Structures are given as structure tokens and as C-alpha cells.
């Protein structure tokens, strides 16, 4: 089973469906943040759908969360199946940190040293250094290093999952499923608690760690079913498509409506419902055959997706100072991909080769 879900291994181990989800997610985010440049794809849609660019960014990040939860859930299912120990949990965390933190701190340092890459007012540095800038409070008002909010949710989710797995494995046969359920309940409780605090849906609900404790949990639930009942999960995913696909479309429409997002339903249920519906569809996507024509492109975009997510934010600010308006969107795409490719080859891959083997 180890090769069936490995999206980070050699080319013959990679599943096209997982790469497709990852590539689609980063493309949606890149397009969303490039929607202010003339000539972007969203500039051709009617004014009534002007929030489409923003919604595409929301959908892209939620896809990342579900995919991350699925992959982490598979890894932790293997670890707990073999008997999780403090040492194996530590190796799990170390491998995650070696994948994500070197590039994060490199980009963070670049933003501090070269303000042209992030002209927004820089708040206190230490929350960013500790990855707590949106842990219990909304992101700073200036939205400096605006894409870092999702990394806070990811990194602290890894720690919580590993800690809870160590505890629950002592008394439960299926610790990963139990951990995911605990996170779903906890995220809902914190969103309920946040109702009386008010605040904007985007910053106070979507982008805070406490209110997003369940961000990767739905992917973990899917991972548990896939790991233990793969054929049944795939059959169920296919059978549910007539319901899950329309549900996704309805939820995307709700996300485009600020008046609906500000309701109790919007603040509490929209994001977990979207994650659940997406996870219903994911098994069908995972096993898609890989068309030879587009596979190299999808694989390439998937490979640089994390680095691309980190660097495109700075390129977005840099491009208007380099080229005229007519070329800004194209320049934004080209420079983002070029910078991401260089950092992936020079920084990410060498660090990944140093990671200890999971035990």
C-alpha cells in the first residue's frame, strides 16, 4: 500500500490524481492573487462574478488542506499500525519540518531584509519567527506575508496530530480516526465560541488556527477509510458524485456571498462542509489515469507548488515596479514559476535528501 498514495516519491510512485489536486490548488491560488493584474483570466467575467478571483483562492487553499490531511493521515496510519512511539512521532515531525520550515524561514528573512518584496507595514517579527502570527488571533492588520497564515495552521496541526496520536493509540484501535474526530469537534467548538466575538469571516474564521483545528481533519478521515477500506471508499466516492459535486458548487456560490458567510451557518459550517464534500470527490480523482500529454506539466507544477506558494506573494508586489500594466500578469506568472523552480532545486530538494527515514 505504501506506493499507492506516495505523492512525493519517484516518478513511477507518484499518483497523477494527487499531483492534479496539488497543481489545481496552487494554480487557483496564483490566479486569485494575480486577479488585480490586467489581462488575468477573471478580468473577462461579468461584474456579477467579480469575487470569483477571491473565491478561487479560498478553494485552492482548502484543497491544499484536504490533500495535506489525506497524506498526513496515510503516513500516521502506517506509523500507528506499526506501533507509534515518541521516537517515531518525533521523526514524523522532523520530516515535516525539514520539508516546510527551511523555505519558510528563507522567504521570511528575504522579506525582512528587502522590504521591496513586501511593502506592507511589518508587525512584530517574533510571532512570524515562532509561527504564531494567527494562532489565537487574526493575522496582523497590515497582512504582512499574507500567505503565511496557512502555514501556521499546517505546522501546528502536525504537532497536535502527533501528540494526540501518541495519546489515543494507548487506548483506541483506530487512533487516527479518533484524532480526526477530536479535531473536527474542537474546530466547531472554537467557531461557535467565536460567534460572540464577531470579526470578519476571512480573518477571524478562515485564517485562525483555533477556528481551523479541523482544517486537515477531513482529509485524515478520508485517509483512514482509504487505508483500511480502499475499494469501498472508491466505490462510495463514485456513487456519491451526483450529490457531492452539486454540493461543492453550492458551497462555492455561498463563499462568493459575504452576506451568507456572515451568518452563523456561514461562520460555523461552510468550510467543514466544503472539506467533507471535496473529500467525497477526492478518491475518484486520486485514481485518474495520467494523460501523457499533460502529465509532465502537472507533475512539474505539483513539485514546485509549495515553493511557488511561498514566493508568488513577493513577486506580486515586485512586478508592478518592473513592467508596464499590459505585461504584469504574464510577468507575474513567469517570475513566480522561475523563482519557485530555482528554490526547489537549490534549497528544497537538497534538504529533503537529508531527512531521516521514517520509523
What does this protein structure show overall?
With about 350 residues, the chain is an all-alpha fold. Helices cover about 65% and strands about 0% of the residues. It starts with 15 loop residues before the first helix and ends in a 6-residue tail after the last helix. Residues about 5-10 have low confidence and may be disordered.
Protein traits:
mainly alpha, single chain
Q: Provide the number of structural domains.
A: 1
The number of helical runs is 15
Number of strands: 0
Helix share, percent = 55-70%
Shape: globular
Main sheet makeup: none
Based on secondary structure, the structural category is mainly alpha
Cα Rg: 20 Å
Strand residues, percent: under 5%
User: Any low-confidence stretches, pLDDT <50, length ≥5?
Assistant: 6-12
From the N-terminal CA to the C-terminal CA, the straight-line distance is 16 Å
Mean pLDDT: 93
| Helix and strand pattern | HHHHHHHHHHHHHHH
Q: What's the helix and strand layout?
A:
Layout: H1 16-33, H2 52-81, H3 86-113, H4 126-129, H5 148-168, H6 175-194, H7 201-206, H8 217-228, H9 230-255, H10 258-261, H11 264-268, H12 270-286, H13 295-303, H14 305-318, H15 328-353
Helix pairs in contact: 1-2, 1-12, 1-13, 1-14, 2-5, 2-8, 2-12, 3-5, 3-14, 3-15, 5-6, 6-8, 8-9, 8-12, 9-12, 14-15
Short description:
With 359 residues, the protein is mostly helical. It is 67% helix and 0% strand.
